[in-house]
Amino acid sequence: MTLCQLFLQPDAAYSCISELGELGIVQFRDLNPNVNAFQRKYVNEVRRCEEMERKLRFLETEIKKDELPIYDPEDNPDAPKPREMIDLEATFEKLDHELKEINTNADALLRNFNELTELKHNLTMTQSFFDD
Question: Coiled-coil regions in this chain (predicted)?
Answer without folding.
Answer: 35-119
